[in-house]
Amino acid sequence: MFISEKEIEIRYAETDQMGVVYHANYLVWMEIGRTTLIEDLGYTYAGLEREGYLSPVIDLSIQYKASMKYGQKATVRTWVESHGKLRTMYGYEILHEDGTVAATAKSEHVLVKKDTFRPVSLKKVHAAWDAKYNEIARVQG
C-alpha cells in the first residue's frame, strides 16, 4: 500500500479561542493530503480540471481522537482505501509530531464531467492513473 505524507504547520488562524484546531480545518488538511498523494503518483488534480473533469466528495467520515493546537505540526497520511469503476475512497490519518493519532477519516469521490456532472470512469479518462489506483488500493476490488 502506498501512503503519501505531508507535514502541516498549524497556524493561529486554524484554531479557536482555546488554541485548539477548529474541526473543519481537518477537512482542508485532507484535501492537501489528497493533492499530495496524486502529485506523488505523477498526476495533478488541476490537470484533470483543465481537461474538463471534477472529483466531488460524495461521502465523508472523520473521527477525532486527540486535539491539536497552535504551534504544533501535523502529518497528514493519505492513501487509496479502495478504487472501483466510478468511486474512489481515500483514507487518512492525521498525526501529532510524536505519532499520536489526532484524527482518522475517509472520503469517497466520483469523477464527473465538469459541464454535465455525469459520472465517468477514471479508466476512460486516464487509464494509467486508474491502473495505479487499482495497484495501490488497500482494499483490492
UniProtKB/TrEMBL annotation:
One GO MF term attached to the UniProt entry? hydrolase activity
State its Enzyme Commission number(s).
3.1.2.-
Keyword annotations for this protein, in alphabetical order, are: Hydrolase
Tell me the enzyme class.
hydrolase
- What InterPro entries is this protein classified in? 4-hydroxybenzoyl-CoA_TE (IPR050563), HotDog_dom_sf (IPR029069), YbgC/YbaW (IPR006684)
Please report which protein family the annotation says this sequence is part of: Belongs to the 4-hydroxybenzoyl-CoA thioesterase family.
* Protein's name according to its UniProt entry: Acyl-CoA thioesterase
Q: Which organism is it from?
A: Paenisporosarcina macmurdoensis
